[in-house]
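Possible regression after last week's pipeline update?

I re-ran a chain I had predicted before the update to compare outputs. Posting the input and the new output here so someone can diff against the archived version. Not blocking, just want to make sure nothing changed silently.
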Amino acid sequence: MKYPRFIILVALLGAIIIGLVFTFPKYKDYLQVAQKLANQKTFLENQAQYYKEIEETFKKLEAKRETVDKITSMLPKKLDSASLINYFNAASQKHGLLLQDILITSGDSFPKIERIQRHQITLKLSGTYSSLKNFLVSLEKSARLFEVDQITFSAPEEKDIYDFEIQLTVYSY
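New output (post-update):
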């Protein structure tokens, strides 16, 4: 009677050991797959959160579209010479100045930020002092970023008509 119990016990232990030997590698594989699945789930949750934040930021930007458009017009992606010439022509005519010549020199990078390009513009205008003053005020109030570097003028040959030369700096990126 002792032998059948001993045989059952040995057979049971043998079955357990054999089961462990054959199932343990599969169990390790299962743990690796479960870990990969958990990592992938975390990655996807983080990615979903990231896209949700982008969508919320986009909605905030859409709500402030007018301000973003002003900033974009202030510092455009490239220098649009035609629109600048049109703007200067219209502004000078509006304020009673005669636009004689425009010289646009494109060029160098802004020293602190390499992406921002600096462009020099020279305007030759004729008109009265008050017209020039109004023209400069309109440049200051413009959405576009203009820096007046230098203004030169000549003595009037006729009554109140001066010849002005304005050197401006405008930026793009």
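Follow-up from reviewer: compared with the archived run. The mean pLDDT is 84. Marking as no regression found.
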